[in-house]
Amino acid sequence: MALVLAGAGTVALHLTQSWSPFLSWLACINAVAFLFFGFDKLRAVIGGFRVPELVLHGLALLGGGAGGLAGIVLFRHKIRKAGFQAVFWAIVGLQATGFVIWKLMF
Fold this sequence. Notes:
Layout: H1 2-17, H2 21-46, H3 53-75, H4 82-105
Helix pairs in contact: 1-2, 2-3, 3-4
């Protein structure tokens, strides 16, 4: 579901705003990550089906680290789960390192 939303949003942004596919993807995957963190927090409060941590980490890994971080901060979600935080920050750190290396090379 998350990838379908991000994919559809990417195509829509690319076609309507003439954004590059990469920029369109980043905007959409971050928006979807933010929404999924918020949805999971809502479900944690009221009970019911939860978003698996693997999905939340996957969204961050696919480029949604900023949206995930915004969701963590704004919704105060998963802030006390050390294991989740460790994996999340490892993903964000890996992406930041990759970005710095890419900028240095190009």
